[in-house]
Design a protein that fits this description.
The protein is of the alpha/beta class. It has a domain of 160 residues: 3-Layer(aba) Sandwich (Rossmann fold). Helices cover 28% and strands 24% of the residues. It has 7 helices and 9 strands, in the order ααββαβαβαββαβββα. The chain is globular and about 45 Å long. The protein binds S-adenosylmethionine (SAM). The site of S-adenosylmethionine (SAM) has 26 residues, from strand 2, helix 4 and strand 4.
Length: 231
């Protein structure tokens, strides 16, 4: 296990995080040291609801407010690794949710712009970032499928909800050599795609495997009405 982090910064549930990182992250093939360190440090139990505290380090997604979920730790690690972040990267995240994946990314890049459509979740995440001293995260409440034009271009974009297509708005806001990671498919299963914009602005698409996310709802995603009918 990689341990070049300062244990003094960590809290009482470190042993559980070490167990989570070893058995769910490293043993499953995640090798990016920045991802591993970030997952060792960020206290996942501070991003789950009171009644889910006991399960914070289990190998599972958990329900959060507004009918949404905090993703399974392995999937967060897989997506973070797929972004191939460098310390100076500027990142856009769509789907702040609990704020957990935002916190993971914020330790790996220079700044994170994150968008959440539910006020309650966005405001709760803002409080968490403030309480935990994250100063490189900006939260916006709105439709993330349109991206965040004023802050573009982004070196990396992460979408943490599943959409029907790759939104062209996000492709347009991706920098040259930028990476976009997004689940695309139907409301049940999606393929986790990484789209890379080459030096000549061509797009290279890779399939990183099957995943299951809550729906990406917005102008370039699923419609809310459609979603309500199917739930
Ligand atoms: N990254 C989150 C975490 O670590 O807790 C997981 C988020 S959850 C799987 C997906 C989130 O995407 C939900 O909070 C949902 O409200 C949000 N979402 C869905 N469509 C969105 C949109 N168009 N813009 C912004 N957020 C959206």
């Amino acid at each position: 296990m990689i341990k070049d982090y300062n244990k003094g910064d960590l809290d009482e549930r470190l042993a559980e995080r070490e167990w989570m990182v070893q058995t769910q992250i490293i043993d499953r093939g995640i090798t990016d040291e920045a991802v591993i360190n970030s997952m060792l440090i960020v206290p996942r139990h501070k991003y789950v609801m009171e009644d889910k505290q006991a399960y914070a380090y289990y190998d599972t997604a958990l329900k959060i407010q507004a009918g949404q979920t905090i993703s399974q730790p392995y999937i967060v690690a897989l997506m973070a690794q797929a972004l191939e972040l460098k310390a100076g990267d500027k990142v856009l995240e769509i789907g702040t949710g609990s704020g957990y994946s935002t916190a993971i990314l914020s330790r790996m890049a220079v700044c994170i712009y994150t968008i959440e459509r539910h006020h309650l979740l966005a405001n709760q995440a803002k409080d968490r970032f403030q309480n935990q001293g994250y100063e490189n995260i900006e939260v916006h409440i709105g439709d993330g499928t349109l991206g965040w034009k004023e802050k573009a271009p982004f070196d990396a974009i992460l979408v943490t909800a599943g959409g029907p297509v790759v939104p062209d708005s996000l492709i347009n806001q991706l920098a040259i050599a930028g990476r976009l990671v997004i689940p695309v498919g139907d409301k049940g299963d999606q393929r986790l795609l990484r789209v890379t914009k080459t030096m000549t602005s061509e797009l290279i698409e890779e399939n990183l495997g099957l995943v299951r996310f809550v729906p990406l709802i917005g102008t370039k995603g699923w419609s809310e009405l459609n979603n309500m009918n199917l739930e």
